[in-house]
Write a structure and sequence with these properties.
InterPro entries: CBM6, DUF4996, Galactose-bd-like_sf, GP_PDE_dom, PLC-like_Pdiesterase_TIM-brl
Organism: Streptomyces lasiicapitis
CATH superfamily of the largest domain: Phosphatidylinositol (PI) phosphodiesterase
Shape: globular
Pfam families: CBM_6, DUF4996, GDPD
Largest sheet: 8 strands, parallel, barrel
Distance between the termini: 47 Å
Protein name: Carbohydrate-binding protein
Keywords: Signal
Helix content: 10-25%
Strand order of the largest sheet: 1-2-4-5-6-7-8-9
Number of domains: 2
Number of strands: 20
Length: about 475
């Protein structure tokens, strides 16, 4: 692990304060390649100090006392379709200062929000975005969350970039991914919608190309992506560095993950690090953060100098930045990790229909339960009909408890499970709902309530043999039920 960077230790988010724009501050901001804070807001008729104004100022601030900014990956896709207007609005409402979206051009040249080259995963249509006109694309409906062919359709439509920028205009910044080859068309949209100060361009293009773009468009916000393959590009900017660098490293020994390299970036710019997947920041992920912050966000901030974190867990990151806690067990609840079943082996502690651990996670030696590591979430996987697991549960207080399960699956139906307490008969089948991805974990209510005495109990989770089963179990959670008026 990289040693801490005490010279640039970043505090948790500071309370928002109102700032007065001075000539000095404006000149300093312009020197970083951005517009003077507040200048575009006044020219466009926006309110004098919106959330977007504050995000713009914060983005241009790289001092040692700055707070960490939250960037929502494809918007808040946990509450709305990815890259949709509702996902953008929900991300800002949940506390993100930046929303990341992906841009592609339709056959008739309209910039729209779409991650994939095709519309197959996220809509009810098929085909390449570049082969469809905007009218054809607009007729399609977006699927929930991360999409998938078995995911439910919504009433939402594929938005244009103009619609997205208008929605973000007073709320925050928009990280414009996959736009560099279409940067001039995108710039025209920003100008037409009065959102130049909201749009954040990024690329790993040759520095001469980047400088030319920034010279033509001095008000453009720009972030340069660096990894070991182009680490030397940082020096090519000279004294005209962009206000942020996105740093990608899959190993802690990478050049761009080195303390000296990162200190050099932090001296002039914000450092953006991605927490979504293992290979983006050497396994310091969102999901690992929810197990222990030191395995993710805390180390990205304190050890690697991150001052912007892109995340798939907006609310959890916001909670961590405000309180220092992540993934905490609710007061009075009991959490049972899926892989932490009782000892005893096949037929006693569990029943698994195939030999060995089929997953890539840290299963117990000599046992056949399948355990996967989904970008830091350690979960029981390869779930199949007739299998079961037994757990020991220590209940802290007598009372009524409702059961929830943190699960993931891209299938509909994903499967069913039944619960048996203390050797009793299994209860009614609980349906696992589609979460729109194997890596998209969600805490789902099980509809099971049980009165339990204080002390140790056993709980057996069994999968119906006659039902389709293909889902992952992160953990079970027993939460105390509070009666009305208590």
């Amino acid at each position: 692990m990289l040693s801490p960077m005490p010279s640039y230790k970043i505090p948790r988010r500071l309370p928002a304060v109102r700032l007065t724009v001075t000539a000095t501050a404006a000149a300093w901001a312009m020197a970083l390649g951005g517009a003077a804070p507040g200048a575009l807001a006044v020219e466009s008729g926006a309110p004098a100090d919106t959330a977007a104004d504050r995000a713009h100022r914060d983005f241009l601030d790289h001092g040692p006392g700055i707070g960490v900014m939250t960037a929502a990956h494809r918007g808040q896709w946990r509450e709305a379709p990815e890259n949709s207007i509702p996902a953008i609005r929900e991300a800002f409402a949940d506390g993100a200062e930046i929303v990341e979206v992906d841009i592609r051009l339709t056959k008739d040249g309209v910039p729209v929000l779409m991650h994939d080259e095709t519309v197959d995963r996220t809509t009810d249509g098929t085909g390449r975005v570049g082969d469809l006109t905007y009218a054809q694309l607009r007729a399609l409906r977006l699927r929930e969350g991360l999409g998938g062919r078995q995911t439910a359709l919504t009433a939402d439509r594929v938005p244009t970039l103009a619609e997205a920028m208008t929605a973000a205009r007073t709320h925050g910044l928009v990280n414009l991914d996959q736009v560099w080859q279409h940067r001039e068309a995108v710039w025209r949209v920003l100008e037409a919608t009065g959102t130049v100060r909201n749009g954040l361009f990024k690329s790993r293009a040759p520095v001469t190309e980047v400088k030319a773009f920034r010279t033509r468009h001095p008000g453009a916000l720009y972030m340069h992506l660096v990894d070991d393959a182009n680490a030397t590009s940082v020096a090519e900017f000279g004294n005209d560095r962009p206000p942020a660098f996105e740093v990608v490293f899959d190993e802690v020994g990478d050049t761009v993950a080195g303390a000296a390299f990162l200190r050099g970036l932090r001296a002039t710019s914000r450092v953006w690090i991605n927490g979504m997947r293992d290979g983006l920041a050497a396994r310091y992920t969102d999901e690992a953060s929810l197990i222990a912050p030191a395995r993710g966000w805390a180390t990205l901030i304190g050890g690697y100098g991150a001052s912007i974190i892109q995340t798939d867990n907006v609310e959890a990151l916001e909670t961590y930045l405000a309180t220092g806690a992540a993934g905490a067990v609710p007061t009075g609840a009991v959490r049972i990790q899926g892989e932490e079943h009782v000892l005893g082996g096949e037929g006693v502690a569990y029943h698994d229909i195939d030999a060995g651990n089929r997953g890539d996670g840290p299963g117990r030696s000599g046992e056949d339960v399948d355990v996967c590591d989904h970008d830091g979430a350690v979960a029981v996987c390869w779930m199949r009909g007739s299998e079961w697991l037994t757990y020991a549960v220590d209940v802290p207080r007598s009372g009524s408890y409702a059961l929830k399960a943190r699960v993931s699956s891209p299938y509909s139906p994903a499967g069913t499970y039944r619960l048996a307490f203390d050797g009793g008969a299994p209860g009614a089948a609980v349906r696992v709902a589609n979460t729109t991805g194997h890596h998209a974990f969600a805490l789902q209510a099980g509809g099971v309530t049980r009165t339990l005495e204080r002390g140790r109990h056993t709980l057996r989770l069994s999968l119906d043999a006659d039902a389709f089963q293909n889902w992952n179990l992160d953990y079970l959670q027993l939460e105390p039920v509070t009666a009305p008026g208590e």
